[in-house]
Amino acid sequence: MTTIVDKVIAGEVRTVARLIRDIDDGIPEVRETLKALYPHTGKAHVVGITGAPGVGKSTLVDQMINRLRKKGKTVGVLAVDPTSPFTGGAILGDRIRMQRHSLDDGVFIRSLATRGHFGGLTQSTRSAIDVLDAMGKDYVIVETVGVGQDEVDVVKSAETTVILVIPGMGDDIQAIKAGILEIGDIFVINKADREGAEKTHSDLTLMINMDLKKYEGGKWKPPILKSEAVFDKGVEELLEEIEKHRRYMAEFEKGGLTTLRSEKARAELAELVKNRLLEEVFNRLIDSGDFDKAVESVAAGEVDPYTACDDLLLSRIDAIK
Amino acid sequence: MTTIVDKVIAGEVRTVARLIRDIDDGIPEVRETLKALYPHTGKAHVVGITGAPGVGKSTLVDQMINRLRKKGKTVGVLAVDPTSPFTGGAILGDRIRMQRHSLDDGVFIRSLATRGHFGGLTQSTRSAIDVLDAMGKDYVIVETVGVGQDEVDVVKSAETTVILVIPGMGDDIQAIKAGILEIGDIFVINKADREGAEKTHSDLTLMINMDLKKYEGGKWKPPILKSEAVFDKGVEELLEEIEKHRRYMAEFEKGGLTTLRSEKARAELAELVKNRLLEEVFNRLIDSGDFDKAVESVAAGEVDPYTACDDLLLSRIDAIK
């Protein structure tokens, strides 16, 4: 145990890779390692990058890595891909272009995809962030497809959240923007040479301004940047804004203006308790054979699922104080 | 109670609307109504329509409603929008164009968006489908943004799943296709007049054929259609394929070739048990004050979250048989 922890802290790539794979596979034994690593976390700046498919997230992350490395910063990247629940592994796809960094010791890139029966992807991501943080990476970048609730939850693990959009994505873009507006610290319009970039910019500005009271009292107001990641345009400006947001967050926390730390602890603990509870109780329901019996009764039309659920749970739950 | 059930079965719009709002709000009292409605379900054909933002889902659904109505069929539509977890209500946005059906008694359209603390969107959707089914709608169409795991789960409530794509959506489209391929019964390439439609068609064909052994023994092989929903092109063909799939499913079930009904019961019961368990146990943890104490300890750095989770749960879980 101690050896694994020591090796992670020493930044040993193979140990870290194995540990993250074990986290992704939901191996229960990793809990003890994570407990021991926890005191060594909290130094990395965790940046979430999210956006719909095709907006250029991987290209942007690739350019960010390149520039951060030139500044002497080390970078960990977690590509979270919940779009493939069946294949059991993240599609590497366009992430191949990040491979130019694969021989650089200062960069560690891994994909997370697996989700247990109860969807522990948010927890896996948090744990993997902790590992890259304990490993000593200056930045941990979490890249995820930003549409569903899962992605929103995953992104909440980040300290700075970057929302990537592109011009002219059709009607639904409004819905996405509205859904993610609240979690965006920085907005980036990528492929900004495309038609409609100005309209997207003014739409975003309007939506941010509509929410003006959120920014009272010197609170962070999300900037809207433009980029053409494929030509490395706008990437430096993004890194500057990320650094600004980092400094702002540090001030904000120090000044006691909020209970950020407590909010983070609450979210993390709730997620842990949720996954553990489902895992333990479902195992008992399944091992006892009661769950299968209930399924058969429902399938045979002998009982409705709502009553079957009551029968399975109520007496058991009453045992809990 | 009986009155509500009778009114739903009689198709009374205001009662149904209120019940669905209560489901969406997670009001516990709806459980008894749902129990009583359950024996009246199972008649509607439930069709899921999913695809990335901007592919034209709402336009297609609007045209489908129009054509189904001309055939004398009644239609219920649930627009599931988990992209907006904060605003507490689905963004109606482009669904406004469906409003031309709002004066038609044979059409009932509602949005679902709210998710409880533990994300019961899948459960809400299932319950709302049951209500529209009990109300007597011939078709229930569930429209959802198809990217994350949530959407995949929601779509699993459907008997026939239609995956909508458009040509040339960028690199990530491959990842999406791979993720949703397994759940698609029918694929539609919308905006098929756009450049790249042939490439998308051959990509999809290849991916379906790679999975050939799935289609052995006369199993359903997903057709790939082309449409231009905005011009009502390809919509009739889609309805025909949906009808074919419905007949195929009926044969399939009758022939005892599968345990479809049992699989559906298992998924539904698992979802119910999961949500109920989290709701009940979390309420106890919070009411006892133990959860808040644990959060403070973690925030103060006195304990790591993994140990805090053990402390909260282990003794309580042991009480469950």
Can you walk me through this structure?
The structure is a homodimer of 321-residue chains. Chain A has 321 residues and is of the alpha/beta class. The first copy, chain A, folds into two domains: 42-255, P-loop containing nucleotide triphosphate hydrolases (Rossmann fold, 3-Layer(aba) Sandwich), CATH 3.40.50; 269-318, no CATH class. Chain A is 49% helix and 12% strand. The first copy, chain A, is built from twelve helices and seven strands. The first copy, chain A, has helices at 2-9, 13-24, 30-37, 57-70, 121-134, 149-155, 173-181, 197-210, 235-254, 260-287, 290-299, 305-318, and strands at 45-51, 75-80, 107-112, 139-145, 160-165, 186-189, 224-226. A seven-stranded parallel sheet of chain A has the order 3-2-4-1-5-6-7, with helices on both faces. In chain A, helix 7 links the parallel strand 5 and strand 6. The longest helix of chain A has 28 residues, at 260-287. The radius of gyration of chain A is 22 Å and the shape is globular. The model of chain A is unreliable at 84-94 and 171-175 (pLDDT under 50). Chains A and B meet through helix 3, helix 6, helix 7, helix 10 and helix 11 of A and helix 3, helix 6, helix 7, helix 10 and helix 11 of B.
